[in-house]
Design a protein that fits this description.
The chain has 15 helices and twelve strands. It is α/β, with parallel strands linked by helices. The chain has two domains: 137 residues, Alpha-Beta Complex (Aspartate Aminotransferase, domain 1); 239 residues, Aspartate Aminotransferase, domain 2 (3-Layer(aba) Sandwich), CATH 3.40.640. The strands form three sheets. A seven-stranded mixed sheet has the order 2-8-7-6-5-3-4, with helices on both faces. Strands 9-12-11 form a three-stranded antiparallel sheet. Strands 1-10 form a two-stranded parallel ribbon. Helix 5 packs parallel to helix 6, helix 7 packs parallel to helix 8 and helix 14 packs across helix 15. The chain is globular and about 60 Å long. About 3% of the residues have low confidence.
Amino acid sequence: MPTPPAPIPAARLLFSLDPGVAHLNHGSFGAVPVPVRRAQQRLRDELDSNPMRFFTQGFLDRLAHTRRHLATFLGADPDGTAFVENATAAAATVLHSLRLGAGDEIVLTDHGYPAVTLAVERERRRSAVTVRTVALPLAPSDEEVVAAILGAVTPGRTRLVIADHITSPTARLMPVARLATELDRVGVPLLVDAAHTPGMLPVRANDIGAAFWIGNLHKWAYAALGTAILAVAPTWRSRMESLVISHENPAGFPAALDWQGTRDYSAWLSAPAALFTMRSLGLDEVRAHNARLAAYGQQVVGAALGLGAAELPAPRVPAYGPADQDPTGDAASVSMRIVPLPPGVATTTEAATALRLRVAAELATETAIGAWNGQGLLRLSAQVYNRAEEYDRLAERLPALLRAGS
């Protein structure tokens, strides 16, 4: 059994989460620290005090400066990075901009985020593109991932491959840099859905080599909800079109995406306060704490369900050295882990949702429970506000709840 990390001093006080609930699902919506919420409220107060001044006196420069700050943190080119509300909106923007048609193909995997998969399905219905979904094991090796995806590519017809950096349903770290290199050799662009990457991994997005890289800052980077970026390689920037046409549309990418009329920009503009909060705790310390605590939670809950270490999906072991020698960030471990549920439990979306609600109501614990390819999966997250005893309590009480529901 791994040893849980020591808590980071005072980190728990940064969050106003309900202390009567164990919040073990940071990966779904994140949690906004109090200093970031206060920064966001100050921006809203500034807007409300004089909307005309807020939007017409230097606002676009202010927005661009914030975008450059965030892009630099993520190792992306600020001139090729745009604000979006979330990774799903970014994926929809890319699909819209590529103008696909009959005879074109999109390749994705069965580990992908459901909302992105739905966007691809809409594109299939609308433009008659062919969609190829690559089936992968629950814990595939790098070689299996690359070989399976390349095997699904049709030269001259595949117009886009979509792969997650950290998969949402299975919490798997994918070899996206290697995949980008292999796809580049056959002239196929890669969209990396890195929704969970910002804040969790010390990534440098440019060095991955993908045509499109999208990441949420409101999950693991402490930003307010609705804060994400879309980074686009130089070759593709002139093709990017905003889903909504507004006054900055003639300026092209990225300004056309940044400016979306009279929306609430306080989440985007307060994001630097989120990065400051992370840095004040120590980026490396936060990442190491969360990865170790997630591993502990997986082991203790898995053991309570009768699973041995070999039955628990282990994090992928990258082919390179320490994180500071790895430009993609893959050498860092993830802060989410999967515990397979007993056979017959949560095998459908409806059953998984019902079980998640029971765990929340009866065990006062928020988790992510999903049905992936007919198998129930419990996904546990770890953040600086979590403690080892929260996973211990879940391990102690979950087996009885599952027996009672069988």
